[in-house]
Design goal:
single chain; 200 residues; alpha/beta; Dihydrodipicolinate Reductase, domain 2; Ribosomal Protein S8, Chain: A, domain 1; 4 helices
Amino acid sequence: MDFYCPIVRELTPIDFTDTGKIKRIRGSAITCKIISSSMASRAAYAAKGLLQRLLPDIWIVTDVHTPKKNGCGPSPALSMVLTAESTTGLALTTETCFQKNMELPEETGKRAAAMLLEEVRKGGVVDTSSQSLALLLMCLTPEDVSRIRLGALTQYTIEALRLYKQAFDVEFKIKPDHDTKTVIMTCLGTGYRNMARAST
């Protein structure tokens, strides 16, 4: 998956409240400085076993890094990144790492899968770790209304909302949706513009 981030003069207001249905799951199991190349495969297989209760379209690749082949960090590691994609274009992502001497690779895979299923259960259009970033971008949109659906707000997000009030004087309207157990966050953008970018 490529990341593309163009330089823009101003952001666009959003109305992103439709979560849609989860249609596929993609992921990577990555090992570094681990002699047994099967650890990533074992973690991926365990994650698939749990996720296939949700849907059949699951693809988790294994990526084995060795000091001679690819170069690695300072210590052995196993990590897994999983992303659930929906019919409306949302992507919920979780990441977890192997806890050395505390668990088997299968337990790491199951833990990663359980974390992803928990994000899906919460029902937001962005994962928990991205809540504050999405709300910040909403603050920087033109002076128009933006809406987004989030799962349960984390303590970090609540503190971020207080900071946005101080820095941008932006207050969010929070409307609970009791049917889906989510909240609709609405705000009016500040009209921030990138003045270094020439208008076209």
